[in-house]
């Protein structure tokens, strides 16, 4: 409290005392006890009012000692125990964390990381992934705008995340403590394997295997790809200190339909410490056949080539462009795209009434709409001879399948005859039309399903401009091609829309996130946010069964099945209210990425230390590290002073007290006849 405030408080006491004495004692004819009591009440009231005006503040100076933070971050992944370095890691951690001199100088804080990052003082070395990049991101967030050193106890073998060398703040030194035996051991390793998830029946599919070698002499290794007892490929690969890597391309036959699991093995006569990384399993799902699509058109138009390229971007699709009179049999095709049909298409329509193939009808300036009215029952056309350009409007309520807005409102207009288009029966409109700024509420892209047969209508030509514009917007045709593929996927299947739709992979690698997504639709085919979904997973070998609930996310329900053992699993998703179920299976391939290493990555950890002006240390140099931290003058304890100002009085309670005092004074005066 300042001197001025004390003087004001003293003056307030004098003023309050003087006024009270003058009014109730000095002027009073009879100096009774009541007068003194009233004078006391008046004194308190006046003094309280003056206190409100002065509002005295208490000022308190406090001093706080702030130490530089020293995060000690320990690699908690299973690769540490696989390299037999877990006990050493705990020993190093305790020597640094319990050092009294470091505690005096630094605010020592401990963390662990594997696939995630968290504060802890307990380590089990069971993490399934190593993500050093997540350490950098979290430390930047925790110690924002602070200069501090980091002790990183790890083998440096990262299995997920971005390159950690450049992830850490270069202003904050990182001191890696390298775990594991740095002696170069003889090791053959399958470093990477590239293969498509899908292959077509009776075709061959490519597999590309990348091999890596560590050793001091030349070696001849046996490379084998097998499935069960069948061997598909055997090769001899020569590796040496000057040729440490090799790429082996192989073509394998897709003879069996369904999920096929293969095994790649690399071995030699030399003894290895780590043979786990000599084997790698992979799986391919063999699909029965391609979808054959006929684009039938009596005219030449850029739309035809654009559609063919977009559809065939999915290797499962095969497109042929033909004229109506060139079609011999419709049975060769799974989908018919009828481009601007006229009376020349009469035979096609009549044959398809028997064949029952789903159709994609595209209209334009050359379409015979009277003929089209006679051949289908989903749309009614009353068109004039005048041409019009139609912009598109995306329908967010469309729910036949998951359709993304690829920016339809900004795409060039389609050209079609001017007139009225009305829908008949149950149809779903994905795009409606707009003429310049006026919504017509007429359909532009329509999907219909009637008695198991499906049809799609695009009412306008020049959709080739849409594909071109999406490439301009995104530097890729992908968005448009995926949109077109979803249309073909709708037409290629005659299955009615299911109320329970489940998405999952056919196979996963051990340690990967195993996520299964489901959607449940009510009778109006609207996403049901009140559904109750559960999943039962059964290991076909051990017969062990586990139950989980699916949690609601953004327009879907999800479950994470991490922790399941390698092998074949069957599962059933069930909606508890309706009892609707979906059953399928998946395979977890035996692959532990944390067991792929025989040495720490000294090179990258040294590079990280250099990038941050720190230094890398081996496990027997921890005393040198401690000495370096203690002698570094950059990290000093700072004493901060903080000034705390608090009001001497609470004005709310003081107002209440003043009101009570004045009220009491009034009642006493009235009771004694002084009013």
Automatic annotation (TrEMBL):
TM regions (residue ranges): 6-25, 37-58, 648-668
Tree of life domain: Bacteria
Entry keywords, A to Z: Membrane, Transmembrane, Transmembrane helix
The UniProt record lists the keyword Transmembrane helix: yes
Name listed for the protein in its UniProt record: VWA domain-containing protein
Organism: Flavobacterium bomense
């Amino acid at each position: 409290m300042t001197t001025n405030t004390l003087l004001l408080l003293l003056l307030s006491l004098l003023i309050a005392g003087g006024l009270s004495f003058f009014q109730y004692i000095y002027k009073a004819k009879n100096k009774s006890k009541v007068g003194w009591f009233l004078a006391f009440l008046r004194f308190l009231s006046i003094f309280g009012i003056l206190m409100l005006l002065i509002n005295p503040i208490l000022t308190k100076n406090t001093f706080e000692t702030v130490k530089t933070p020293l995060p000690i971050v320990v690699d908690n992944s299973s690769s540490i125990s696989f390299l037999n370095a877990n006990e050493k890691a705990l020993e190093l951690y305790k020597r640094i964390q319990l050092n009294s001199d470091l505690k005096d100088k630094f605010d020592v804080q401990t963390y662990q990381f594997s696939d995630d990052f968290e504060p802890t003082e307990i380590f089990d070395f069971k993490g399934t992934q190593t993500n050093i990049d997540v350490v950098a991101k979290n430390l930047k967030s925790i110690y924002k705008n602070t200069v501090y050193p980091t002790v990183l106890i790890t083998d440096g073998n990262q299995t997920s995340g971005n390159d950690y060398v450049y992830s850490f703040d270069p202003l904050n030194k990182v001191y890696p403590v390298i775990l594991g035996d740095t002696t170069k051991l003889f090791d053959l390793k399958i470093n990477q394997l590239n293969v498509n998830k899908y292959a077509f029946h009776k075709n061959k599919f490519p597999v590309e295997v990348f091999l890596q070698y560590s050793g001091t002499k030349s070696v001849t290794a046996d490379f084998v790809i097998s499935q069960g007892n069948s061997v598909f490929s055997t090769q001899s690969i020569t590796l040496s200190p000057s040729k440490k890597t090799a790429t082996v391309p192989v073509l394998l036959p897709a003879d069996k339909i369904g999920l096929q699991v293969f095994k790649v093995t690399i071995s030699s006569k030399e003894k290895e410490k780590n043979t786990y990384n000599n084997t790698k399993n992979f799986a391919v799902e063999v699909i029965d056949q391609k979808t054959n699509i006929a684009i039938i058109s009596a005219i030449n138009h850029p739309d035809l080539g654009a559609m063919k390229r977009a559809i065939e971007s999915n290797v499962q699709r095969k497109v042929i462009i033909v004229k109506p009179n060139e079609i011999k049999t419709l049975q060769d095709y799974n989908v018919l795209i009828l481009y601007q049909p006229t009376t020349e298409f009469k035979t096609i329509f009549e044959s398809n009434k028997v064949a029952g193939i789903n159709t994609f009808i595209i209209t334009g300036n050359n379409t015979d709409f009277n003929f089209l009215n006679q051949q289908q029952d989903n749309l009614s056309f009353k068109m004039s001879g005048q041409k019009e350009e139609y912009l598109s409007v995306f329908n967010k309520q469309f729910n036949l399948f998951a359709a993304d807005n690829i920016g339809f409102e900004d795409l060039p207009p389609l050209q079609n005859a001017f007139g009225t288009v009305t829908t008949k029966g149950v149809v779903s409109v994905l795009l409606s039309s707009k003429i310049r700024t006026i919504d017509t509420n007429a359909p532009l892209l329509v999907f219909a399903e009637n008695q198991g047969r499906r049809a799609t209508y695009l009412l306008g030509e020049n959709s080739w401009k849409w594909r071109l514009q999406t490439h301009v917007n995104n530097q890729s045709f992908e968005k448009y091609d995926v949109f077109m593929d979803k249309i073909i996927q709708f037409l290629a299947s005659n299955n009615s829309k299911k109320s329970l739709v489940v998405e999952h992979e056919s196979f996963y690698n051990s340690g990967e996130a195993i996520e299964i997504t489901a959607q449940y639709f009510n009778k109006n085919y609207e996403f049901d946010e009140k559904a109750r979904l559960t999943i039962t997973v059964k290991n076909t070998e051990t017969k062990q069964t586990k139950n989980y609930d699916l949690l609601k996310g953004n327009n879907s329900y999800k479950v994470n099945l991490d922790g399941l053992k390698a092998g074949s699993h069957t599962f059933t998703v069930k909606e508890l209210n309706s009892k609707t179920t979906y059953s399928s299976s998946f395979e977890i391939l035996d692959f532990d990425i944390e067991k792929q290493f025989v040495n720490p990555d000294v090179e990258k950890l040294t590079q990280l230390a250099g990038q941050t002006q720190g230094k890398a240390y081996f496990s027997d140099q921890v005393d040198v590290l401690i000495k370096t931290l203690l002698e570094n003058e950059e990290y000093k304890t700072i004493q901060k002073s903080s000034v705390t100002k608090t009001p001497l009085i609470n004005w709310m309670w003081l107002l209440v007290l003043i009101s009570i005092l004045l009220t009491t004074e009034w009642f006493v005066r009235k009771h004694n006849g002084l009013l």
